[in-house]
Specification:
Order of helices and strands: EEEEEE
Strand order of the largest sheet: 1-4-5
Oligomer: single chain
Structural class: mainly beta
Strand content: over 45%
Number of strands: 6
Length: 90
Amino acid sequence: GFGPFNGQKYDANLDLDTPESVDMSITQKIDDKWTVYAGSTWTRWSRLKDITVTNSGVPAQLGGSAGPIGTITEEQNWHNTWAHAIGASY
């Protein structure tokens, strides 16, 4: 632990840009009994570069806002994705 600071609580904030997605789909009625479906979704996960949490009120003994628990960053490095679906109903 951190000695006298063990169990200490701090206020934190998180600024996060979530990825947007584009969804396309089509439905086609073949006859009175059959209908087919197809769809694709593209998601821009690359927008999520990192997750950074900023703790406020961290004492100088722990490095203040620049110390090991003042600002915590987790790199994400995600890639964009496509998802596809097909189906039919009878």
